[in-house]
Amino acid sequence: MSSHKSPCRVAGRIVRYEAANSGQIKHLRLATAGGEVEVKIPKFLRSTVQSSLPAGTWVEVIGYRKWADSQMEIKAALIVATGTVATAVLEAETAMEPSKPAETSASAKLGTIQVCQKSDCCKRGGTALWNALETELDRQGLSDQVKLKGTGCMKQCKAGPNLVVLPDKTRYTYVKPQQVPQLLEKHFGEVFAHQK
After folding, report:
1. CA 154 and chain centroid, separation
2. Is residue 108 packed enough to be buried (19+ CB in 10 Å), middle (13-18) or exposed (0-12)?
3. What domains are there in the chain, each with its CATH number?
């Protein structure tokens, strides 16, 4: 049977993390309203996800559901703490329904911009970049829809400051504050145009 891949959103509580033989975290078990599911964690999140989202945390996983040989696998593109049990349970119940194209609303989250907060990146302009992103998101009216998140080392210290735009996982290095408007236009410009 061929594999089929479709976008999905699943919410629930992290039960535990599972490591490969190498000892590196590769999956998390998520308790949802529809039962327990296994979620594959992308490589760029593996080093930080367990410390920032410990077992017991309510989260929303945005990613892809893949069916292969009657087995379902969920691969995360983004894992976000939801903060409330009620929100997570409600989203979990709707997430298990067949996927439908998501309707975009003014309050819907469009994505996340992860900015390296390690000292090397900050010395190379990471703090100025963070401030420019905050200012430009506010100016364009996107601060409610685009989350700005500080991260640990992205393993590109000499190419700092570094950032990643999710959910499409686009990585940028040597980012200058004056490039921020073009970067936001590239990833979120269509939404900004509708808000004018």
Report:
1. 15
2. exposed
3. 4-95 (2.40.50.140), 111-195 (3.40.30.10)
Verdict on whether the full-model pTM lies above 0.70: no
CA 115-118-121 angle, to 5 degrees, is: 70
Token code pair at residue 7: 């976008």
Q: What is the pLDDT of residue 3?
A: 56
